[in-house]
Amino acid sequence: MRFVLDTNVVVAAFRSRRGASNALLRYAETGRVRMLCSTALFLEYEAVLSRRETRAATGHSPADVRAVMNALAAVAEPVDLRLRTRPLLRDADDEMVIETAANGNAEAIVTHNVKDFLPAGRLGIEVVTPGAIVRRLRR
What we know:
Elements: E1 2-5, H1 7-15, H2 20-30, E2 34-37, H3 39-50, H4 52-58, H5 62-75, E3 77-78, H6 95-103, E4 108-110, E5 126-128, H7 130-138
Parallel strand pairs: 1-2, 1-4, 2-3, 4-5
């Protein structure tokens, strides 16, 4: 399966090793699934994980953030953004997620905010929660 993670899923994985979000990253690490990521989306992951409030909530240091970003870079398949879909979503900040999915031929966008990405269905991209994907993978 090829998917794009919304930033909230990456943050959730950073916050808990036991949740479905973290499990998806472990599946990507083993090659069972393909995580797609554009440069813009990667930089957003890094910026959000580096925020003082995020690190305070998780107890991670800047060095931990760098380690996580290095691990993500090692498993993510890079996607060049050639096709623009804007404006498709209500939140302009979410557009890079849907554009990464469209350009990377993703099967799904994985997010905790499914309703925000429903227009992705018009592009043939499923929108699903981390828990739903993990349940599928465990079958």
